[in-house]
Amino acid sequence: MSEQKNENNETVEATVEETVNSTVEDKKSGFDSDVLIRIFMALLFSLIGWLTLWVFGAVVLIQAIFMIVTGEQNKNLKSFAGEIGKYLGSIVKYVSFQTDEKPFPFQSWDSEDKKEKPDENGQAA
Question: Which comes out higher in pLDDT, residue 45 or 117?
Answer without folding.
Answer: 45
